[in-house]
Hints:
alpha/beta, 6-stranded mixed sheet, 4-stranded antiparallel sheet, 7 helices, 10 strands, globular, binds adenosine-5'-triphosphate
Amino acid sequence: MMSIEPGTDGFVVIDEASFRYGAEPPIVDRVDWAIPRGAFHCLVGRSGSGKTTLLKLAAGLLAPDQGSVRIDGVALTGPVSRIGFVFQQPTLLDWLSVLDNVLLPVSLKRRPTAQDRDEARALLDRVGLGAYGERHPGQLSGGQQSRVAVARALITEPDLLLLDEPFAALDALTREELQDDLLALCALHATTVLFVTHDITEAVYLADRVAIMASGRLHHDLPIDLPRPRRREMRYAQPFNALCLALRQAMDEAP
Ligand SMILES: Nc1ncnc2c1ncn2[C@@H]1O[C@H](COP(=O)(O)OP(=O)(O)OP(=O)(O)O)[C@@H](O)[C@H]1O
């Protein structure tokens, strides 16, 4: 088992963080992790290994019982607006138009301006939904709803984007398209990303670094040295498959 150093230069620094729900054993157990500014990190692990709980600690939605989470050197004491979150379910509001759903994080703080609306339209354009702004979420497919959720998370140009299996419910082709959309948008804004997934190939395609979570601990981490921008054909080449195999073997060895 390797120990993972938090480092001092991370934009996100998780330092010896532990969390338990009530009297249960710790669900997140002394986790150290650091994400440099602008990096894309993935967390993989079996169901119930504590990934979502760790993501909630990184978002300030839960507070660690021990240890700390720092964003840009400042200890996190609650949810902050510079963090965007995309959940497994798109969680859109069906009584609002698609455009107003994208604008929601802005509307919660102030009345959106014409410029905000232009930015929301531009984001919808970038995720291929430029023509769908006036529709309601119930009139969109699952993949289109996930695109809206990604656009909504990016409207405030967050420094840090946290995603919890956002594409898990989608078919393989739609998922690949959304992975490309997400990478392009994050590269454009140099967004720092922590992405949780069950899917080893998804993690290898997206990430600069992948960590494996098992029983609340980070057991292994793997740098992904594939060139950027990532291209679809890389998925079928030997280096990609070798990385997937290495991750798979590391997951099998984790307790
Ligand atoms: N609010 C809660 N109260 C009590 N236990 C919880 C709560 N939320 C999660 N747990 C427990 O914590 C453990 C880890 O859950 P978590 O959602 O972090 O795992 P996960 O790795 O994200 O799983 P999945 O991949 O299935 O989403 C599970 O055993 C779960 O039952």
